[in-house]
Specification:
Elements lengths: L2 H4 L2 E2 L1 H9 L5 E4 L3 H6 E2 L4 E2 L7 H8 L6 E4 L4 H12 L5 E4 L2 H7 L3 E4 L7 H22 L6 H16 L3 H7 L2 H4 L5 H4 L1 E4 L1
Helix pairs in contact: 7-8, 7-9
Length: about 190
């Protein structure tokens, strides 16, 4: 039995070693186009999590049985993508530990580009902070019932922290500015080592 058939996760350095020795690997990045345009692992194919269709993915691979190494920014979306792919019949999906950020932190080469879109987590932080501050201000100045807004935001953060599922991030990922890439990786992204 192939090692990757039972493997569930791999660290970035080990994956880079495998790629360098010519082992077959399919790298799947499930982040938003804006995140991908900012920095991505060389050779990674972008299919955002909300657009990932296991049946279409299988058809596109056309019987290719090489391991599918799945990554996002830090691991949460990649885990959901792996679950989605496995439920759709895709075998041998392996989580890249730490995602793209782990790859960068390991000092491995990345394709860097320029994106005018803030990273998804910063968009979440800005939205949550704005809602909480606005709700608190309205509760203090207009009507105390506006305290429901920061309460709801806090409950949402608690849920996201406990489950690893952030509804706001999923919603923001569907916004138009996160759907289009401002950088064509073939034309404006250069490979650099960090």
């Amino acid at each position: 039995m192939n090692q990757t058939q039972t493997e569930t996760a791999v660290n970035p350095r080990e994956l880079q070693r495998r790629i360098a020795t010519g082992q077959p690997a399919f790298l799947l990045d499930v982040r938003t186009p804006g995140e991908y345009a900012t920095a991505h692992v060389p050779g990674a194919k972008l299919i955002p999590l909300d657009e990932l269709d296991p049946a279409a993915f299988c058809r596109e691979r056309n019987g290719d049985s090489s391991p599918v190494y799945v990554l996002c920014q830090s691991g949460g979306r990649a885990r959901r993508a792996i679950e989605k792919l496995k439920n759709g019949g895709v075998q041998c999906c392996v989580l890249v530990e730490g995602g793209t950020q782990g790859w960068i932190d390991a000092g491995l080469p990345v394709n860097l580009g320029k994106s005018r879109v803030l990273p998804l987590m910063r968009q979440v932080q800005i939205t949550v902070g704005s809602l909480a501050a606005t709700g608190a201000l309205l509760a203090l100045t207009v009507n105390k019932l506006f305290a429901i807004i920061p309460l709801a935001v806090g409950c949402g953060l608690l849920f996201a922290g406990l489950t690893g599922i952030c509804g706001l991030a999923l919603l923001l990922a569907k916004m138009p500015w996160n759907k289009s890439s401002f950088c064509n990786p073939d034309s404006c992204c250069a490979t650099e080592s960090k």
